[in-house]
Amino acid sequence: MRRTLNVGSLPWLKTQDGSTEVVCEYFVAVHGAPRLQSENIRGCLGWLSGGGGSLALRLRPAGASESQRGYRSGGNIKKGELGLGAVPGREAEFRQGLDQALKYARALNCTRIHLMAGRVPGDSHRTVVAKEMESIFVQNLNYAADILSKEGITGLIEPINTRITDPRYFLDSPHQAAAILEKVGKPNIKLQMDVFHWQIMDGNLTQNIHKYFPIIGHVQIAQVPGRNEPDSAGELNYSYLFSMLENLDYQGYIGCEYKPLCSTKEGLGWIKDYCTHSRW
Predict the structure, then answer these.
(1) Three-state DSSP class for 136?
(2) Cα angle: 218, vertex 220, 221; to 5 degrees
(3) Using CA atoms, how far apart are residues 61 and 168, in angstroms rounded to an integer?
(4) Of 32, 133, 192, 195, which has the fewest beta carbons less than 10 angstroms from its beta carbon?
């Protein structure tokens, strides 16, 4: 029998136009049991605006632990923004977004916040603004680290692939993220590993996971290239990857950030199969 496999998705927080969208998706925890604990699956979607703290508390997933929860502040999504962490001239707005994220993090007992880097400005070339954006990102992450440390919260940065998902996103590889984290040098700012993005940008997952495991603060999964369930047809052998994480003694949750081919509950059937069989 396999040892504990913790699988869950994060409730994301995205601030925009004075309102906050909180998406608490689906959570499953299988603690050495060869069966799917369907009663642990919860899902909800809500909008918070103004003083929505009490509503935020009602959105708390039943049975979820603090280590499973996380948020992200995404800037103004309607204007095509995916965070402001590295965007020139938006430092004050980044700090305002962080303050708002902290408000809801406290309400939901959240211990992780995704600090999104943002996109390369549309009128700029990546190579021209790369150094400036990195410098701004490091400054903002240092500021966030000091604020978050007082709350016992870990900040996360996530590389998002620029080949399929978002060609303009600034942070696009684990190597770039690790170099930035080294410059920040704060223990409560860590790397969020989305295997989908890592595979598309660089592959070499075994070596990269071993290399960057000490700074990984959260893991997300999806099959490549369809971004569906991990046992769907695609490039990745998740039975191997899960075993590697177990051997490395990964203690965190695994976020299911994929598009189910059928219903969400059916899309979680792979967990039962994984815990029942040694491999798919």
Answers:
(1) helix
(2) 155
(3) 33
(4) 32
Q: According to DSSP H, which parts of 46-202 are helical?
A: 53-58, 91-107, 126-149, 174-184, 195-201
Could you tell me which of 235, 236, 231 has the C-alpha nearest to residue 276? 231
In angstroms, the first-to-last Cα distance of the chain is 15
Does the pLDDT of residue 44 top 70, yes or no?
A: no
Structure confidence at residue 272 (pLDDT): 81
- 8 Å CB contact between 213 and 254: no
Task: List the catalytic residues.
Answer: 158, 257
Please name the residues in contact with 37: beta carbons below 8 A apart, sequence gap of 6 or more. 28, 29, 30
Q: What is the pLDDT of residue 104?
A: 82
| Long-range own/partner contacts, residues 60-65 (CB < 8 A, 24 or more apart) | 60/24, 60/108, 60/109, 61/11, 61/24, 61/27, 63/27, 63/29, 64/8, 64/27
Number of CB atoms found within 10 A of residue 72's CB: 24
Structure tokens at 272: 């039962």
More confident residue, 75 or 134: 134
Would you state the pLDDT for residue 69? 45
Per DSSP (E only), the strands in the chain are: 5-8, 12-16, 19-24, 27-30, 44-49, 71-73, 112-115, 154-157, 189-194, 216-221, 254-256
Contact predicate 241/207, CB 8 Å: no
- pLDDT averaged over every residue in the chain: 78
Query: 75 pLDDT band (50/70/90 cuts)?
Result: low
pLDDT tens digits, 214-247: 999 999 999 999 999 999 999 999 999 999 999 9
Angle CA(238)–CA(240)–CA(242) in degrees, nearest 5?
A: 65
* 232 vs 106, more confident: 232
Sheet bearing 44-49, strands edge to edge: 12-16, 19-24, 44-49
| Confidence (pLDDT) at 25 | 35
Could you count the other beta carbons within 10 Å of the beta carbon of residue 31? 10
